């Protein structure tokens, strides 16, 4: 365990200098100037013209189960830790973070948690976890639905409405087939957001043919949350 920790730090160490010294904020920074950019040659993602309420860097896994009829994997969930990335907005590190963190995440040992990874990378001086992303039974239909849950983290902890469950309304495949699609998602339950975008995805795609019943594939992505009714009381 000690040896693997040392090796992990060696693996991660080479990425630490990719980030400038963090600005000294303890919580979510002002995003009033932030605007989501989407490719102009498509109609799947329509970016709001106004600022988001939150921007998170998701670090986690996409889960797949094998469809034995087709020998292809089917998505059946995901788990990710959502880190506040608002304090990097407007810096080069904001744009590079999903890829830099993905490279470290995909190289890290399986026992390394997203928190350990982010802390070791020095991405933020006080990495702030906004919440968690996972799947729950669809509240209005069948199957599973994605949920973003800020009810037990940070400034929104204890607010039972600080979550959103969504339904996909736009899907733009990444230009790199290793990366999961960019998505536009509408909120169907919860007050955290009325609209969510998953962009800047890195990794997360399964192999084209099943080898095991269930697999998890590491990924990172930016999540943008719009029109939140849940305020971050520490917003400055
Ligand atoms: C759309 O633009 C992206 C870059 O923003 C490019 O990678 C992609 O090939 C373009 N697609 C089409 C169909 O022109
Ligand atoms: C599994 O694969 C079969 C055969 O290609 C297909 O008909 C079926 O819809 C797939 N099931 C799911 C849940 O995607
Ligand atoms: C997905 O995989 C993670 C482990 O990465 C696990 O904790 C989670 O329960 C799995 N299931 C679903 C439905 O996401
Ligand atoms: C495609 O994405 C993967 C995972 O994010 C990355 O390792 C690879 O370098 C990318 N390929 C290109 C051509 O950018
Ligand atoms: C794979 O995941 C599915 C869905 O969660 C579960 O029902 C099944 O028991 C799992 N199979 C194995 C071999 O773990
Ligand atoms: C979302 O917020 C923007 C800016 O605060 C506002 O102009 C817009 O009407 C809101 N939209 C919805 C659907 O609430």
Automatic annotation (TrEMBL):
It comes from Rhizopogon vinicolor AM-OR11-026. Keywords: Signal. It comes from the Eukaryota. Residues 1-18 form the signal peptide. The keyword Transcription does not apply. It holds the Pfam family DUF3455. This is Malate dehydrogenase.
């Amino acid at each position: 365990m000690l040896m693997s920790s040392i090796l992990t730090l060696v693996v991660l160490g080479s990425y630490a200098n990719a980030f400038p010294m963090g600005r000294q904020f303890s919580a979510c920074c002002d995003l009033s100037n932030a605007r989501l950019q989407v490719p102009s040659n498509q109609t799947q993602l329509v970016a709001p013209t106004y600022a988001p309420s939150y921007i998170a860097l998701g670090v986690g896994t996409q889960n797949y189960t094998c469809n034995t009829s087709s020998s292809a994997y089917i998505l059946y969930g995901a788990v990710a830790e959502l880190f506040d990335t608002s304090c990097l907005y407007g810096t080069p590190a904001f744009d590079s973070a999903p890829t830099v963190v993905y490279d470290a995440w995909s190289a890290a040992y399986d026992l390394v948690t997203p928190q350990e990874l982010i802390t070791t990378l020095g991405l933020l001086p006080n990495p702030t976890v906004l919440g968690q992303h996972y799947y729950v039974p669809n509240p209005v239909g069948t199957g599973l639905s994605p949920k973003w849950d800020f009810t037990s983290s940070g400034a929104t902890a204890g607010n039972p409405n600080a979550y959103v469950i969504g339904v996909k309304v736009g899907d733009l495949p990444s230009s790199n087939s290793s990366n999961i699609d960019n998505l536009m998602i509408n909120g169907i339950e919860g007050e955290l957001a009325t609209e969510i975008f998953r962009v800047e995805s890195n990794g997360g795609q399964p192999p084209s043919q099943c080898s095991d019943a269930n697999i998890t594939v590491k990924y990172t992505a930016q999540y943008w949350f719009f029109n939140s009714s849940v305020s971050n009381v520490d917003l400055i």
